[in-house]
Known about the structure:
Elements: E1 2-5, E2 24-28, H1 30-33, E3 57-61, E4 69-71, H2 73-76, E5 79-80, E6 89-90, E7 103-110, E8 119-120, H3 122-132, E9 141-145, E10 172-173, H4 175-183, E11 188-191, H5 200-210, H6 218-225, E12 229-232, E13 243-251, E14 259-268
Parallel strand pairs: 7-9, 8-10, 9-11, 11-12
Antiparallel strand pairs: 1-14, 2-3, 4-12, 4-14, 5-6, 7-13, 13-14
Helix pairs in contact: 3-4, 4-6
Amino acid sequence: MKIIDLTVTLEEDLPCDPPIQIPKIQRRDHKDTAPEMPSFFPGTTVDDLPGGNGWAIDFVQMCTHSGTHLDAPWHYYPTQNEDIIPGGEKAWTIDQVPLDWCIGRGVKLDFSDKPDGYKISKQDVQDYLAKIGHELKAGDIVLLRSGARGGTGSNTAGDRWGTQEYLVAGAGMSAEATLWMAEQGVHVVGTDGWSWDVPLPLEAKEFEKTHDKSIIWEGHRAGRNRAYCHIEKLANLEQLPDDGYTVYALPIPVKGGSAGWCRVIAILDEE
């Protein structure tokens, strides 16, 4: 069995999030905690601990969108499924997302030849699927390897993880492409970028030119029409084939949360 880890390592002080979202980690090692440990074992002292060592623990301050995470429909809009239910219904929070959505056959869309800020259309997705000979099926999990600086095929969003440039790296999905995949029965998608959309600063520049309100966060807002979830900040997508593997993306069920951290892996089919 071959397992590919698709999850970034959670670290503090990386400039690849807006400042308010950058995780903070306080690490306390065995010597730091040694004076506290005897309180759990009445009658003991630090001298009774082997080498005077307590336990190592860490305190983490972060938001639900730190590191690799699964966004719930609640993140996108207060309601979901407006194309299916008149007026829609209350959008699911992450603890309400069905777990069977989070395990499925994987298919990779490699748009690493597209420049930063490229908006992927429904036709782009359909053409790519035809090229690799994959027909989407209900329950497939679609993973996007997003675009490169200058469309060179190098320096993808995933390659720029850990740098401030990550915030403007990669291509993004249009609303029409997202909705088309959801209509095929795809419930979960993912990207190596910071956002499923075109990077927000680039989307903002497009709005400044056109004043077209429909483009604001359009890939995310598609969840208003049809419920779906997406994974952001994936890693190692270059190690995946086009298909032939199962993706596991099980989120931590934060009560009422807009997202949940997850360890995403792909298990390749045995030959």
